[in-house]
Structures are given as structure tokens and as C-alpha cells.
Amino acid sequence: MRLKGWLKKSIALCACTILGGMIASLSFAQNIQLDFEAFPPGKGVPADEMEVSEQYKDSHGVTFIIDQDGNPNTTNDRSKPLLEDRGGSNENSPETGDLKGFRNDKLGVVDIEAAAYQNQLGNFFLKLNTDAPAGANLLIEFL
Questions:
Q1: Segments making up each domain of the chain, as ranges
Q2: Would the pLDDT of 137 be above 90?
Q3: Keyword set for this entry (predicted)?
């Protein structure tokens, strides 16, 4: 079966339009790398138990928030994640509001990673705050 000239051109144009749209959408993607070792200028100095939300909003267009009910469409249940220092050097007692980020059961310590990961992790990481329920989600919003 032979296609008429105008049909061939229409199919080719449609395919080019779809492919062009896919390439255009890919060209807007960019990689950003964030760490919590230092914030952008004027946004404070990272510290144990510090709230993190909009420190990277102006510089990278990224915000962090905790959605407590598992429904990202509701906004009255939001809280801010906290920074946790690794190694437990700045740990306060739970009575002062300082909860650990993780427990290493193999070593029997808190906030200290296994030896295989020591060169891969920084000094701070994000954790849920003490008010977040078990089903809470960390939302990273790209603006």
C-alpha cells in the first residue's frame, strides 16, 4: 500500500513535532547538587536540629517540607525537616528535643554510619522533626 504524498508529509511532520517536543522538554532539565554542609550566602550556618525549608529557594529553586498526612494536596499539615549531625558529637538528650537521626544496630551507636560509607557522607543530613507521624513524607519542591 502506497501512502499519498500529503499523508507522508503529515506523518513525518507529526513525528518531528513529537520528537521536537520531547527534546525541548529534555533541554530544560538541569542537574543540581545540594548538600547540607553549607548553605548559600546569607542563609545561615548548618547546625544540629536546625529547621530546613527555604535555604535553597533563591539560589536553586528548591524547598523542603514534610507532608504529615501523605496527601501532597493538603497544606495545613506541613512541618519543616531538621538537620541532624552525624557522629552524635552534638547530641543533646531527648528531653531537650534532640532526637537521633538513625541508629546503627550493628555498632550499637546513633548517627554513625558503617565504615564503608564514611567517605560518602557529609556532616549533616535531613530527618523528620519530632512532630511528624510515622507515615509522613519528605516533599522536595522544585519551583
A1: 1-30, 57-142
A2: no
A3: Signal
**Contact in structure between 37 and 122 (CB atoms under 8 Å):** yes
Q: Are 80 and 119 in contact (CB under 8 A)?
A: no
Contact 66, 78 (CB under 8 A): yes
In tens, the pLDDT along 95-113 reads: 444 566 777 777 777 777 7
Distance (Å, rounded) from C-alpha 19 to C-alpha 9?
15
What is the β-pairing status of strands 124-127 and 109-110? Answer: unpaired
Q: Determine the Cα–Cα distance for residues 47 and 123; give it in Å rounded to an integer.
A: 10
State the virtual CA torsion across 85, 88, 89, 92 in degrees, nearest 10: 90
Answering whether pTM is above 0.70, one says: no
